[in-house]
Amino acid sequence: MLKIRTYPLGPIQTNCYFIQDESGNCLIIDPGEEGTRLIRKIKKLELTPVAILLTHAHFDHIGAVDALRDRFDIPVYLHSEEREWLSDAVLNGSARYPGLPYVQGRKADHLITEEGMMEIGPFKFEARFTPGHSPGSVSFIFELERCAFVGDTLFQQSIGRTDLPGGNTRELLTSIHDKLLTLDDGVIIYPGHGPSTTPAIEKDSNPFLNGF
């Protein structure tokens, strides 16, 4: 049984997730900011981080990557389409918004180049490519635990924006329809911002998906 902890971080309140097993090992998904706070949480909970997974590399999802990577000596996983984004403030969008954190770090340790099952430490899950919000968006599906971490692809009653570089509305809607709404209706979808939802809820009442 996995325990999931959610931490909204930074001025945009990006959801960072800790996925913890019964032995205290954990995966960290999208540490967007507030690295010191996250390190304190990990120590207090006596967790052992094994990796950082990035659903995509927009600045509000990656701001604390290097702080956690260096403190716990763990690898970072990112889709190969965004291999340059962690180190390029123009690509990750942080150069676009004066007043918000300027993010420029080191490149990922491992690039995700294929869909399918992944195994990191004791964790087994599926990577599904869900481009549209960004060209390298990935959703991480934990089938046995009936949960999915989808970044900014799908939100409760909304969908990801597509007006940033590399965004594509038709591609986003196809990703949602083919890769996320095909999950079992009761799967818990954990988005990059805001509360969780399910495929059943979004198929029934998401206004952006009506008629697709």
UniProtKB/TrEMBL annotation:
One family name in Pfam for this protein: Lactamase_B
Cofactors that this protein relies on: Zn(2+)
Domain of life: Bacteria
SUPFAM superfamilies: Metallo-hydrolase/oxidoreductase (SSF56281)
Single GO MF annotation: hydrolase activity
SMART domains: Lactamase_B
UniProt keyword terms in alphabetical order: Hydrolase, Metal-binding, Zinc
Xref: InterPro entries: MBL_Glyoxalase_II, Metallo-B-lactamas, RibonucZ/Hydroxyglut_hydro
Metallo-beta-lactamase domain span: 13-193
Protein name: Glyoxylase-like metal-dependent hydrolase (Beta-lactamase superfamily II)
Naturally occurring in which organism (per UniProt): Sporosarcina limicola
